[in-house]
Amino acid sequence: xxxxxxxxxxxxxLGAGLSHYLEHMLFKGTERRAGREISATVQAHGGYINAYxxxxxxxxxxxxxxxxxxxxxxxxxxxxxxSTLPADEVAKEKEVILREIAMTRDDPEDRLWxxxxxxxxxxxxxxxxxxxxxxxxxxxxxxxxxAYYRARYVPNNLVVVxxxxxxxxxxxxxxxxxxxxxxxxxxxxxxxxxxxAQLAPRELHVTEEVEIARAVVAWQVPGLTHPDxxxxxxxxxxxxxxxxxxxxxxxxxxxxxxxxxxxxCWNPGTSGLFCVAFTTDGGKRPAAEAALDRVLxxxxxxxxxxxxxxxxxxxxxxxEVASRQTMSGQASRLGAAEVVAGDLNFSxxxxxxLERVTPAQLKAALRRYLVPQTRTAVSxxxxxxxxxxxxxxxxxxxxRAAQTGPGEVEVVTVKGGGRLLLLRExxxxxxxxxxxxxxxxxxxxxxxxxxTALLGTLLSKDTRRRSAAEVARYIExxxxxxxxxxxxxxxxxxxxxxxxxxxxxxSVLGQAAHEPAFRxxxxxxxxxxxxxxxREEADDVVTEGRKLLRRKFFGEHPMALDASGTVxxxxxxxxxxxxxxxxxxxxxxxxxxxxxxxxxxxAVRPRLKALLERFETAPPPPRxxxxxxxxxxxxxxxxxxxxxxxxxxxxxxxxxxxHTPEYYVGEVADxxxxxxxxxxxxxxxxxxxxxxFVRSSRVTGLEGAMxxxxxxxxxGREGEVLAEIDAEVERVGSGGVEAAELRRCQARLKAxxxxxxxxxxxxxxxxxxxxxxxxxxxxxxxYDARIDAVxxxxxxxxxxxxxxxxxxxxxxxxxxxxx
Length: 819
Fold this sequence. Notes:
Layout: E1 2-3, H1 18-25, H2 35-44, E2 48-53, E3 58-63, H3 69-82, H4 87-106, H5 108-120, H6 134-138, H7 142-152, E4 158-159, H8 168-179, E5 202-207, E6 213-222, H9 229-240, H10 246-254, E7 260-266, E8 271-280, H11 285-302, H12 306-323, H13 327-341, H14 346-355, H15 359-369, E9 375-381, E10 410-413, E11 419-424, E12 431-438, H16 451-459, H17 468-476, E13 481-486, E14 490-497, H18 502-514, H19 520-537, H20 541-554, H21 567-571, H22 575-585, E15 591-597, H23 601-613, E16 636-641, E17 647-655, H24 663-673, H25 679-687, E18 691-700, E19 705-713, H26 718-733, H27 739-756, H28 760-772, H29 783-788, H30 792-802, E20 809-814
Parallel strand pairs: 5-9, 11-15, 16-20
Antiparallel strand pairs: 1-3, 1-4, 2-3, 6-8, 6-9, 7-8, 10-11, 12-14, 12-15, 13-14, 17-19, 17-20, 18-19
Helix pairs in contact: 1-7, 2-27, 3-8, 9-12, 9-15, 10-11, 11-15, 16-19, 16-22, 24-27, 24-30, 25-26, 26-30
């Protein structure tokens, strides 16, 4: 349900975050339902409910099995048009949103983009944050919410979107019944001031406690309906999308003055911004800006080629296809077309306009819009630049980084032991190939943590036949993507193309797996990129807290670190370490190749078998011996001081490993403790307003796991949150879970698994990992039965066995002074 109202429509309360506040409140109770009943009903029917607010719209959505369409429409209609805004909930939710505001103020990325909008826009309401300024938000009263609700939430300001396996006449009947009972309302036009022309460049450069510099250079551009809109989208793709883009190649690969860089065009309304965003070391930010200006100047003089335009169009087509893989994605595309563009046929017309764009138009758009007088430069910088690299070292840069379900999986074991998986699905024109090695931190040598992630990155770069730039250009020129991934137990490569280009995907994978170059210059660049990524993560208090807990919990076990390692361990890595790990892992018995999507099995099968038969015939390498789970970590309570606005509390317990019987009980327990329908969420957030987020999560490996809790709260309230976690664990362990709770969790997990397998990428990855780990490739077929087999007694036994306070590692991350 799309409500055509957002933060720019708040009138005299502009900047107070009323739209976002109201979004939170619509799940708190209606004329027919108590607040908890809404989330519990959705969960009981296997669904997921959420909402989001932007400048110009507020969207409420439910994703659930199609047989429960009536339930979803009834709930959305009731929440959107029948909320009562209970006074006690209004007060409690204000505290929750104040925590959310503190989170955004702690996040340097959020701070940066808010600074971009407030600097680039002086008149338009885009200058105000969607969530609101803290002081203005805190002054909101229930009467303000009610007045805004009555004025903007009327049927003639709504769009309902339904996508999925439904009968259209029946769906229309249900929508008419549930939404049609409310009369049309008076809807006053919202006066949105136009942004005046920018006459001079603007700059805002902030020094703050961050590890790396983040910068955005932006220019004012016209809105979505302007004839130049598709030209500007193509210009953004050519300049800053992918490893073969102009800015990536010039500033990152050649000049080495940035870690990451990309370009985008944001213009959903009558005006927008063309943005170039990059990260770099603090002392290099001015040099990066100067290099950006030089490159744009050269492009303005030389222009672009027909091949540049063709590649950019192909990339946009591939993105559009990918966005339509899931029912949620299709609903989002339809809603945006109707609400934002005002035309359901927008996508078709948009791509027809794209096809007519010429290189001369790209050049003209760059010269017309990316000019000095409309340039806005904003950056967040560390207090002092890091020390210059030692002579002879490369300059730092950063890399990019029996149920309804999928069809049958054809499993082919080839000569030497490699396995090929074919998952054919012709619904959309797309092919995804996934080459996966069993590996991860458990395969690394002690003291060389982070080798896995760096190996994955380097495999996606240079080969003996192509440079990294040539690899990127080869695949991106047809709208494809090529990327590495790494995790706790594996690493691999993923390539996605349109069906006519599947041979390119095979070529790229084959050279990466059998002819990697591991060039020292590329190694140096990507190593420094990984280091920059680790420093960037340290700027986020929640991410840092999770990493700290993991290290304290797992102790000396490899799972103490994720595949990226630490700054200290990565700094010591050498090319020989990468090559050694690759030789150890690159064996036929240790690799799986999965292909999913629209392909001809008869054509694809022999080419992929030939690729796999080139691997060395050898059994999988042994994983290093590890201490048993009982030896994990440091039970105890720890405090870390970080000068942020919020506090984060974390607690980790030993959990069941991946292929143990208790794993599926852990799945249900994780769902029980998480989400808007959980008792823990109800107590901590809804009843006591102690935290903006509270949930459980897991780090799961082949040899052991951590089951953890995480919450963000106000400094000084950490003990109250931890007490609520203790109480909820005690309730579960003493058998206090109700049968209805268990059924809701089981329904949500089963539906969630179905949802998670909608994309070709997900199906290929699931099948490959299952095969690598000794499970059936289509192991997802047994998921429902295993989840349904979990009982109330199992949950109680799980809590009693695993969630033992004496064995827990507890961490509080807070500022030094608390109130």
